[in-house]
Automatic annotation (TrEMBL):
This is Precorrin-6A synthase (Deacetylating). The gene is cobF. Pfam families: TP_methylase. Gene3D superfamilies: Cobalt-precorrin-4 Transmethylase, Domain 1 (3.40.1010.10), Methyltransferase, Cobalt-precorrin-4 Transmethylase, Domain 2 (3.30.950.10). Keywords: Cobalamin biosynthesis, Methyltransferase, S-adenosyl-L-methionine, Transferase. GO terms for biological process: methylation.
Amino acid sequence: MERTLLVIGIGPGDPRQVTIEAIEAMKSVEVFFVLDKAPERGVEVKQSLVGLRQEICERYLEGGYRFVEVPDPPRDRNPADYAAEVRRWHDARADLIERALIDELPEGGVGAILVWGDPALYDSTLRIVDTIIGRGHIGLDHRVIPGISSVSALTAAHRILLNRIGEPIHITTGRKLADTPAEAAANQVVMLDADCAFLDTADALDHIWWGAYLGTEHEILIDGTVGEVGERIRDVRTAAREQHGWIMDIYLLRKPR
């Protein structure tokens, strides 16, 4: 009998932003599997990240479920071949999650992975699930429940639109920001930018709307031109990461007309 795995988007951090569809799906879950990127600040940070998920479950569920934490495999943060290292890391994650599904979820059971934001936006969970199914070692059905993305949370927090009339929107990462083609650079949504790449790529008059820990009690918002607030964003980001041991942030970078 097949096991069922639900991949549930839970938004960027505020339990109030979990959708009704997600809550209804969570009520059917027996086991929640938790696998996060290994934090640099150890057990306290890990408990904080797991705790946010537990808070969501405690708010909306009555019990009858359990959490299984899956240790995250190590990853080289500065590899010679970035794509190859990410593929290796994803395969290692697939090994661990597959083993956990076999050991912790009975046949016919329903498990879930709670994904920050939306599972389709810069998250590896669906690739890992596809890898597990493709191996054929375990009968596994899966379903995806969308979540409010950090993009939506950012624009709502700043009370802005993603684009001006008729303009394109380009979504990228800090690593790829310098490769944005000129025709797509009017409105750039940038994620996973640990090095504040906009300081090297943006013009001083480009406007930036930046947000971190969106939807949580630690939310930070800064906006202005890169020339005005760019260095402050870098300093605030560094201090916040040092204080909390982790950071999730995103920004919109817009060219002036």
